[in-house]
Amino acid sequence: MKISGKEYQRFSKQIILKKFGVIGQKKLKSSKVLVLGMGGLGCPLSIYLASLGVGTIGIVDNDKVELSNLNRQIIYNVKDIGKYKVNVAKNKIKLINKKIVIKSYKIRVNKNNIEKLIKNFDIICDGTDNFETRLLVNDHTLKQKKVLISAAVSGFDGHIFKFNFKKRTPCYRCFLPEVPEQSNNCEADGVIPTITGIMGTLQANEVVNSILNFNSNMEKKMIIFNSIKMNFRTINLSRNKNCSNKC
Ligand SMILES: [Zn+2]
């Protein structure tokens, strides 16, 4: 994987970092990251991945842009209303960096397509909006031994966790065995736009940490951020011997 003179110039402010360097840039360029859901989390996440120079980015969503998305889904504007999110996002990401490969999937993640979808990516970022999909993504990233970086938002709170399934680790189902009866999502409960930006950006940050092998201390932890109190809380996750994934 070579870095051209122009790329060196574009990424100079990160390459100059001792812990990053040209080697770090090459690692990003050869990485394949999948973004599930192009909503409030997927928008900032994919913009940062493209800006950083991640070589292959997959984006997945089957929704069209609506007026009520525009307060937080920052890749879209009023001219995009009614268009498919992945089509708009693909074009805009290409404007940031035309050298990267964007694979767009106009589908809703389900049990029939998940296996094939995640197969060709190294890191899977989940920004979908419901527990059912989050558990499905957890089970299959575990099965295929991928790195999963998952975030969710509700109200003024957001949480993020990472599982490196190449190692023995708890999984999301250890923490949440089944879909809760009272499931909330931002469609029903509302969400403050900035929390989606913060959590999506933290996902991008954790992608970099994973690719560059930085020890971010995210192993076996869930981090919760509240945008009013401006504090981070950490919940330790442990293996549940009754987990259906046999963790
Ligand atoms: Zn488990």
Give a quick rundown of the structure.
It contains ten helices and eight strands.
CATH superfamily: NAD(P)-binding Rossmann-like Domain
Backbone shape: globular
Derived from helix and strand composition plus strand pairing, the structural class reads: alpha/beta
Question: What low-confidence regions span 5 or more consecutive residues with pLDDT below 50?
Answer: none
What is the annotated CATH architecture? 3-Layer(aba) Sandwich
> According to CATH, what is the topology?
Rossmann fold
Provide mean pLDDT, rounded: 95
Which series of helices and strands comes N to C? HHHEHEHEHEHEEHHHEE
Give the tally of structural domains: 1
Name of the top-level CATH class: Alpha Beta
Distance between the termini: 36 Å
**Range of helix content:** 25-40%
Ligand types: zinc ion
User: Helix count, per DSSP?
Assistant: 10
Number of strands: 8
Strand order of the largest sheet: 3-2-1-4-5-6-7-8
Largest sheet: 8 strands, mixed
Structure description:
With 247 residues, this protein is of the alpha/beta class. It has one domain: 3-Layer(aba) Sandwich (Rossmann fold), CATH 3.40.50. It is 36% helix and 19% strand. It has 10 helices and 8 strands. An 8-stranded mixed beta sheet has the order 3-2-1-4-5-6-7-8, with helices on both faces. The longest helix has 19 residues. It is globular and about 55 Å long.
Give the topology.
Layout: H1 5-10, H2 12-15, H3 21-29, E1 32-36, H4 42-52, E2 56-60, H5 85-96, E3 101-105, H6 114-119, E4 123-126, H7 131-143, E5 147-154, E6 157-164, H8 172-175, H9 186-189, H10 193-211, E7 221-226, E8 231-236
Parallel strand pairs: 1-2, 1-4, 2-3, 4-5
Antiparallel strand pairs: 5-6, 6-7, 7-8
Helix pairs in contact: 4-5, 4-10
The structure holds zinc ion (ZN).
